[in-house]
Design a protein that fits this description.
- Chain A: It is a multi-pass membrane protein.
- Chain A: It comes from Cryobacterium suzukii.
- Chain A: Its main location: membrane.
- Chain A: One of its GO terms (molecular function) is transmembrane transporter activity.
- The complex is a heterodimer of chains A (about 290) and B (about 270).
- Chain A has about 290 residues and is mainly alpha-helical.
- Chain A has one domain (about 1-215).
- Chain A has helices spanning about 1-30, 40-55, 60-85, 90-115, 140-160, 165-175, 175-180, 185-210, 220-235, 240-260, 265-280; strands at about 120, 130, 135-140, 215.
- In chain A, the strands form two sheets. A two-stranded antiparallel ribbon of chain A has the order 1-4.
- In chain A, helix 1 (about 1-30) packs parallel to helix 5, helix 1 packs across helix 9 (about 220-235) and helix 2 (about 40-55) packs parallel to helix 4 (about 90-115).
- Chain A is globular and about 65 Å long.
- Chain A starts with a helix and ends in a 14-residue tail after the last helix.
- Chain B is α/β, with parallel strands linked by helices and about 270 residues long.
- Chain B folds into two domains: about 10-90 and about 180-275, P-loop containing nucleotide triphosphate hydrolases (Rossmann fold), CATH 3.40.50.300; about 100-180, no CATH class.
- Chain B has helices at about 50-60, 105-115, 120-125, 130-150, 165-175, 195-205, 220-225, 245-250, 250-270, and strands at about 15-25, 25-35, 40-45, 65-70, 75, 90, 180-185, 210-215, 230-235, 235-240.
- In chain B, the strands form two sheets. Chain B has a six-stranded mixed beta sheet with strand order 6-7-8-3-9-10, sandwiched between helices. Chain B has a four-stranded antiparallel beta sheet with strand order 2-1-4-5, with helices on one face.
- In chain B, helix 6 (about 195-205) links the parallel strand 7 (about 180-185) and strand 8.
- In chain B, helix 2 (about 105-115) packs across helix 4 and helix 2 (about 105-115) runs parallel beside helix 5 (about 165-175).
- The chains are: A mainly alpha (about 290), B alpha/beta (about 270).
- The interface between A and B is large, with 32 and 39 residues.
Chain lengths: ~290, ~270
């Protein structure tokens, strides 16, 4: 019983982080039909920015906010400079491009920041809460992780549902030609979409790094898990991305807790293959997506 | 090149002069001139392949003419692009409707209601705080148009779940929501029953005190009953231009187009016995 609880709580926290990363992928997929593999190294860069700030003796929260803001800027720059030329071109171009960015950003980071392991701080304790004489496998940082992802999701939902900018972003994502004809500045909306996605990606980068080690390729496995979560939920559906992330986090946590942690990547890829074979459009495509 | 939103220009709202378009040696349009007067409905008719669609595409910037000029309220439009239409106070409907399937009817119309939808990346980002206020304004404008077209009961529905004539109305509502000075309608009657068509006719007539309309259409009944002025195309040339009565009696038109159409029409009337 204790182990089940521990496994579930760990899965929930990890699932929220995967959900955030999957959401970042889905936001970009919906608007530009591109799977942004470079999301992982982008989040790594912004985490390093936070680390540099914190290492300089500046409070964690300033580093945290700086990482999210630099994610916003980085997302916009990547879209404007690298993605714009391949928009509307064959899909393969964009895939190769984001994979290329993945490799290049990782290499540049290793040159600039060094490829050694550095520990990343946390703003809250890493000790589990104590209930009676039992220590629950839920730390202050876990609670913070879950809450921050939920807050970001709520903000995004509010943006898309209740603002005219969100309305125009959705219109641009659904049909660029028609949106343009109606006077929507589609290119601006796409840039904004990439920028916001990069903020969400940066958040997951910070949460993965918290209390752990950071090195240039520390996010590489997360892009795989985030991608599996996004496909599981349906690449088109933000709600699906969140649920897919949670399911994957729980599933992988069970595998890690009961079978063996070395099998986690294998389990993730098995899930990917099964989903692609059985329900390639994902569990929550369309029916759920249309309500968001 | 951008005229003021509500210009005081007294001449035509929209003018095409000596427009020619050819696709690889085939002359789709030759020396086509037309003018849409304020508060008038201009109809463009012609048999299949006469160049109606090309003409429409020139008017909304999808096709660049090889020669000739376009004017919007007297201002020259050089290399008109579709995304400039909204800023020029021009709205259009699409034959394929082009509705956003995963947005509600109301949201579809709200996107159209944003006449000054100029928010790019920075203004979009910086405008987020008051963006929900702007959204409420759009919602109000869109709701008013839905009421006007009597489709307010479908506001929360998704377009794909609605019958085609209603979807067509939604597309029209979206085009009207920006309060354009010029409305371009591409085959507005296609797929409508004759009752729906006469309703559409009344609706279009009801718009002319607010805007000018140009429609491309092959349903003669609608064109004859709705248009103040008609331009007839055949083989990419204007073969006649005038009021409905003039057109009806023009021998060139009868020969080129109406002949067949009138025969078809009388045959249909004979069949239905009306």
């Amino acid at each position: 019983m204790q182990q089940l609880l521990t496994t579930s709580l760990a899965g929930l926290t990890l699932g929220m982080v995967y959900a955030a990363f999957a959401l970042a992928l889905v936001l970009i997929w919906r608007s530009t039909r591109i799977v942004n593999f470079a999301q992982a190294p982008m989040a790594m860069i912004t985490t390093y920015i936070a680390l540099l700030i914190v290492d300089a003796g500046i409070p964690y929260w300033i580093g945290f906010v700086a990482a999210l803001l630099s994610g916003l800027v980085l997302g916009a720059i990547i879209e404007r400079v690298f993605i714009r030329p391949v928009e509307g071109k064959p899909e393969m171009n964009a895939i190769i491009l984001t994979l290329g960015l993945f490799v290049v950003i990782n290499a540049v980071a290793a040159i600039v920041f060094g490829s050694h392991y550095r520990s990343f701080p946390v703003p809250f304790g890493l000790r589990g809460f104590e209930v009676g004489d039992v220590t629950v496998a839920l730390t202050g940082f876990d609670v913070f992780s879950i809450c921050s992802v939920v807050v970001v999701m709520m903000l995004l939902l509010a943006l898309f549902r209740y603002t005219d900018v969100g309305l125009k972003m959705r219109a641009s994502a659904f049909n660029q030609e028609v949106s343009r004809m109606l006077g929507v500045k589609v290119t601006g909306m796409l840039t904004l979409g990439w920028a916001l996605a990069a903020v969400v990606g940066s958040l997951s980068g910070l949460l993965i790094a918290g209390g752990d080690l950071v090195y240039p390729s520390y996010m590489d496995s997360v892009v795989v898990y985030g991608f599996v979560a996004a496909v599981l939920g349906g690449l088109d559906s933000p709600v699906g991305a969140v649920i897919g992330g949670l399911l994957l986090g729980l599933g992988l946590s069970v595998v890690s807790g009961y079978v063996g942690s070395e099998l986690v990547p294998l389990a993730a890829l098995s899930i990917l293959i099964v989903v692609l074979l059985v329900r390639p459009s994902g569990l929550f495509s369309h029916a759920t997506a249309r309500r968001v | 090149m951008t005229p003021p939103a509500r210009s005081n220009h007294a001449g035509p709202v929209f003018e095409m002069s000596d427009v020619a378009v050819s696709f690889g040696g085939i002359h789709a349009l030759s020396d086509v001139s037309l003018a849409v007067a304020p508060n008038h409905v201009l109809g463009v008719i012609g048999p299949n392949g006469a160049g109606k669609t090309t003409l429409f595409n020139v008017a909304c910037g999808f096709v660049q003419p090889n020669t000739g000029t376009l004017h919007r309220s007297g201002a020259l439009l050089t290399r008109l692009q579709p995304h400039q239409l909204a800023g020029l106070g021009i709205s259009r409907t699409l034959q394929g409707l082009g509705l956003f399937d995963r947005m509600t009817v109301l949201e579809n119309v709200m996107v159209g209601a944003d006449r000054h939808a100029g928010a790019g990346f920075f203004s979009g980002l910086l405008g987020l705080p008051q963006s929900s206020k702007e959204e409420a304004a759009l919602r109000g404008r869109a709701t008013a148009v839905l009421n006007e077209l009597h489709i307010e009961q479908y506001a929360a529905r998704f377009p794909a779940s609605l019958p085609y004539p209603i979807r067509k109305r939604v597309a029209l509502a979206r085009a009207l929501a920006s309060e354009p000075e010029l409305l371009l309608l591409d085959e507005p009657a296609s797929g409508l029953s004759s009752d729906e068509m006469s309703e559409l006719g009344e609706l279009i007539r009801g718009l002319v005190d607010r805007m000018a309309v140009m429609l491309v259409e092959h349903h003669m009944d609608l064109v004859m009953s709705v248009c103040d002025h008609i331009v007839v195309l055949d083989f990419g040339r204007v073969i006649a231009s005038g009021g409905p009565n003039e057109i009806r009696e023009n021998p060139a038109v009868l020969a080129a187009y109406l002949g067949n159409e009138v025969d078809d029409e009388s045959a249909r009337l004979a069949r239905t016995g009306s």
